[in-house]
Amino acid sequence: MKSSRANILGVMLGVVVLSCSSIVSAQPAAGPLDIQGLDHFVITGARARAMGGASIANSSDVTALFANPAALSQLTTLEIRVGGLFENNLRKQDQNWIPTKDLPSLSVLFEGLTGYIKPLDGSVTNPWDNVQRPYDNIGPNWSTTSSKTRPLTLAAALPLTFEGMKVTPAIGISQVIDLDNYYQNNNSMAPYVGQERPFDQWSNSVDTIHIKWYQFFRSREGSVYGITPGLSVMFLSGLTIGGSVALLSGSSDDLEQRVERGHLNVAVGNGKAKDFLLDTVYYYQTKTGTSTYSGTLLTLGLLYKQPAYSIGITVKPAMTVFRTWDRDVISIDTTNKPFPVRIDSLRSRSYHENGKDDVKFPLAYSVGFVLTPNDRWTFAFDYEIRNLGNVEWTSQTNSTAAHPWANNSANWRLGAEYRVSDMLAVRGGYHEDIQSFAPDGSAIVDKPTSGEIYSLGAGVALGNIFIDLAYEYSILKYQDIYQSNINYSTREQHQFMMEIAYRF
Fold first, then answer.
1. Which CATH code of 1.10.730.10, 3.40.50.300, 2.40.160.60, 2.60.200.20 fits the domain covering 5-89+146-503?
2. pLDDT tens, 434-444?
3. Distance from CA of residue 295 to its chain's centroid?
4. SS3 388
5. Cα 221 versus chain centre, distance
6. Rounded Cα distance, 151 and 86, in Å
7. Cα 202 to Cα 205: distance, rounded to the nearest angstrom
């Protein structure tokens, strides 16, 4: 056991919690795969990404179509741009279990440490008195890595003059939402030990409490792209308005799996747990399918540009993303079969599921400010409000709108660019990565967890060819805190972006 647990035990009381009213009470973080990933909107433009994502008043190329279409007015000639992304992810979870007051050996089981306990001699015939050991080699901690490449941007814009006004139409396609999502918990339970309060509510109506102990993970991979036409019109010198309409479509591969690890029987009496026994069980369930997404995203923008500064504003009216999903469910179990069970005698069951979800996003708006004190330096700042906590989710099974997320916080982004010469510019930036969920056990239940994103990049001009490079390092750490354990989760991400443009 780790020495720090004595302090944690003193703070958290280190007590197992089971509620007599909880028949099936799954850990919230181990919930089913539904609309995860739809909260992750992508910032488009390698230059903007290199500058911390600040793009509202900072876009100077055709990617303004996706950030602030009014900024298309800064183009002076036809531009065609294409870009892609390489991504590497590390995700992991470390669990610290606290010895419980009534059943101190239970935490040893969940941490996978019972192998260090010497077996008792043969005189012990009561299975309740034996050391309870897992029937598998699944430990509490896990880590996984993944890498992928994907297209990011393809766009073109052509500035024109119409009745004395500068008009710049554009069209492009870009990634709008990154749907990738992954979660795993090797010690999921129903009901969950340590989740409910008060801690002394052992059931007095039964003499044994049954707990299903299993490994759970869910995974989603995919993207939503937008085919986006847009237009900017310069009415006055330095003042431009613009608009764009992104026709959203995309798909994801969805996977959800549950692997049963055992059946815990907890003997209780007089409001206390007395002992526990682990029974073997063979069961797993896999849900494999796809989801398709559609919707329409309208962006209205304004840009006021002066030699030393620029101000940008964007407004995104309320919109709805529609998700249609279908999946195959396969489960294998040994219900009513004695142990050991031959693999060829397992009972298999499969069926198909499908459904629809509507996710309504509220009005969102952003304000950007750019300062250019001289010809070499550019400083950019963005402030964005999306109000994800007001998102409404309805499905076929639930006609009442639910609010699945907890983020009404503002995002701010900061970046800088230094032009070394006419051929080379170097960039850097930082911005918050506020999530749409609050960790389990948070003192403030609606306060979302937050990560950090650091970025670097460069721009190279070779005649009519322009190359923009960007690198982002993202780190997210949070803790799910229960009275029985603390789960430390980490996501570390590296993204490399490259765009090549040609200006005629």
1. 2.40.160.60
2. 999 889 888 78
3. 20
4. helix
5. 11
6. 9
7. 9
